[in-house]
Amino acid sequence: MMYNHRDVEKKWQQYWEKNKTFKTTEQNNKKAYILDMFPYPSGAGLHVGHLEGYTATDIISRFKRLKGFDVLHPIGWDAFGLPAEQYALKTGNHPAPFTLKNIDNFRRQLKSLGFSYDYDKEVNTTDPNFYVWTQWIFKELYKHGLATIEKIDVNWCEGLGTVLANEEIIEKDGIKVSERGNFPVIKKPMKQWVLKITKYAEKLLEGLEDLDWPESLKLLQRNWIGKSTGHVVNWNVLNSTEHIDTFTTRLDTIFGVSAIIISPEHKLISKLISLDQKQEVNEYIANAKQKSELERTQLSKNKTGVFLGTYVKHPFTKKQIPIWTSDYVLTSYGTGAIMSVPAHDERDFDFAKKYDLEIIKVINISDDKLPYNGDGKHINCSIFDGLNNEEATNKIFEALDKSMSVRKNINFKLRDWIFSRQRYWGEPFPILFDENQNIYLVKELVALPYINNIKPSGTTDGPLANIPEWNNVIIDGKKYRHDNNVMPQWAGSSWYYLAYILKNADGTYTPLDSQEAKKRFENWLPVDLYIGGQEHAVLHLLYARFWHRFLFDLGIVNTKEPFAKLINQGLILGPDGQKMSKSLGNVINPDEFVESHGADSLRIYEMFMGPLTDSKSWNVDSLNGIKKWLDRIYATFKNLLDNKIDISLDSSELDSNINQLILDVEENIEKTKFNIAISKMMVFINYLSSQTRIASKYPLKVFAILLSPFAPHIAEELLQILGEKQIHEQLWPFVEVDKILSKSPQIGIQINGKARGQIEVQDSWSEDEVIEHAIKLPNISKWLEGKTIIKKIYIKDKILNLIIK
Ligand code: ANZ
């Protein structure tokens, strides 16, 4: 018997909406804040990849409500950003109505999938009531010295008269051009806001310790922060009063130095070039400007560089060491200068080979092992010979320390966060400049002015530079101007999870810095579960942690970290096994499947495809199978109810199975092993559909409740057919453990280590009896024909392995 999923799903969605079934409650003593990474409302709408994480959090949210938790499960829109702006530039339309239309479509799609969001909590980063607080946080950062203006290179495209984001640039014949129109793009310095995330490097590292996040993700963050402990050595330039600082993590190799290499942008470079090298070096510097950091740091064998014609003096050997410049030394890391040790560093080795520099071993190792970067006994190191790396480092440090030419130093790979975008569709900065470039914070909201026809400014400023009122503000007769840039898309997403807590049903926000906010944060923080894509491993998740930690330091929030537990869902690949993308034409829109198979089928299908964290390919046949399974559940229920309940029947087996199922489903939901929970329910339905009559309706009610987090529409319908209360009035069923009949354990049988079958082992059997029964099984005996068993390995209640020849 089929049930009509279209009618059933619509009916319950209307019921939930009318009754505000998923309104956030604050009436219990347990809470769960279950969060999705909020979407960018693109024109294409939701795709089936979004559904995977959203279904997972929905299952947990529904489960927690049944367990008597207050649940906060909100959704919102990360709605500023480049695509809407590009659309606006192309069509002459304003991004706001276009964005709102996309949001309406997303919301409709989410509702059609039966997600249990509290829509009163919806936030939108482009809503001035929201971004006034994004601006507030920025002002606090500024007041605490964590937001400053610096001169930074931007991608300037003369042809389009605009600055471009990295994703708008492509490479053609080795030069960078705009994706639109293929115009050349160069680097141009410009004054921009920078957030000093590096001041939080240590705190961001330390905060990772206690988080329940995948280890791989924590490692990505640790590497991104990149703490490196070493020394800065100060070298005297010969025949000059100048000094060069080099950063090294291998002070012990100082006797192996054959050159000092500084970055082409090093601030001392012009003072270190000898007359006859001037032209060659200047040409080299001009060339290096064209390369990106990535090109420079890639471990390409082809290193380039130029000798500057000058020398430093080695502090121990007093030898002359030549000074070079090379673009594999980065300005922005360490001191922007290195002591080059070819024998023990790969990049230095390649460089020395190319330019015929001396290769001096300081660790006792055969020549064919070079470059060698491990530990070992030191040689060629005068009084430090015979020491290993650590001892040599310490002793050399002590010796150099006396001449004050060394200091301990900690470096981070993490860079400060460039926070200005030369764009229109973003949060304006809440500041004014006076004519002397002094900065004033604006107390109230600085609203984004409505521009009818967005155009590039033709300068390195954003489109806001075109508006006279924006650039000429007169206050008390004095002239000011706004900042012509806006904040990056990462701004709103750095604190949106706090905004949900502050959002009120009437559309207002409780002020972030109020006592009421503090109380609510104490109630709801931290986020108990955050699910989203792995692509946010560093930027979003690091920025949000930074802002949160800053707000903690201000005393606004009560936890050091925002997201206690985090899971990255796997990708849903196209039917061809490839990542879904517009260009491959393999993107799947859920709408057609909601229509043809129903939301419940789609939800269960996505959860049943495999473990949540794995990548999986879309497959319509399996979706058909799930739809049939739901039909079967419905038919089984109808059948058993039509056949009348017979209380005289022996119910022990059914009671045992349903109680075991409660345990299994609960355990697997807690572990986010939804595919296993579903397979347990499938086994139960196989059993249930083999029954013609049952002794009580109770197991049916229990099953409907267990199913409800996964397939909520059909579960409501089943409860209604049973004459029971709806889900929001139910609790997770209580397990009657004493009703679970103990079962003989199933053990696997292997032949030569390969799984070949299973056997149910009776308690009374001896080891020999287990083997005797096992070898009689047809699917085992066929492997044994004509062979001899040479070894039997039996691990009680676990496995039997037969080794044959
Ligand atoms: C001498 C040396 C000898 C080094 C040796 C390594 C091995 P991490 O661990 O990533 O911090 N380095 C320092 N500043 C640099 C810069 N601005 N651009 C490129 N390379 C730079 O790496 C620290 C090491 O990277 C430093 O230690 C330095 O090379 C190089 F057997 O100094 B080492």
TrEMBL record:
Pfam families the UniProt entry points to: Anticodon_1, tRNA-synt_1, tRNA-synt_1_2, tRNA-synt_1g
Q: What's the catalysed reaction?
A: tRNA(Leu) + L-leucine + ATP = L-leucyl-tRNA(Leu) + AMP + diphosphate
Q: Which UniProt keywords apply?
A: Aminoacyl-tRNA synthetase, ATP-binding, Cytoplasm, Ligase, Nucleotide-binding, Protein biosynthesis
Root EC class: ligase
Which annotated residues bind ATP? K582
Q: What domain of life does the native source organism fall in?
A: Bacteria
Specify whether RNA-binding is a keyword of the entry.
Answer: no
Record-annotated Methionyl/Leucyl tRNA synthetase domain positions: 38-169
Alphabetical list of InterPro entries matching this protein: aa-tRNA-synth_I_CS, aa-tRNA-synth_Ia, Leu-tRNA-ligase, Leu_tRNA-synth_edit, M/V/L/I-tRNA-synth_anticd-bd, Methionyl/Leucyl_tRNA_Synth, Rossmann-like_a/b/a_fold, tRNAsynth_Ia_anticodon-bd
Motif 'KMSKS' region, residue range(s) on this chain:
579-583
Q: Which family does the similarity line name?
A: Belongs to the class-I aminoacyl-tRNA synthetase family.
Q: What is this protein called?
A: Leucine--tRNA ligase
Task: Tell me the organism.
Answer: Metamycoplasma equirhinis
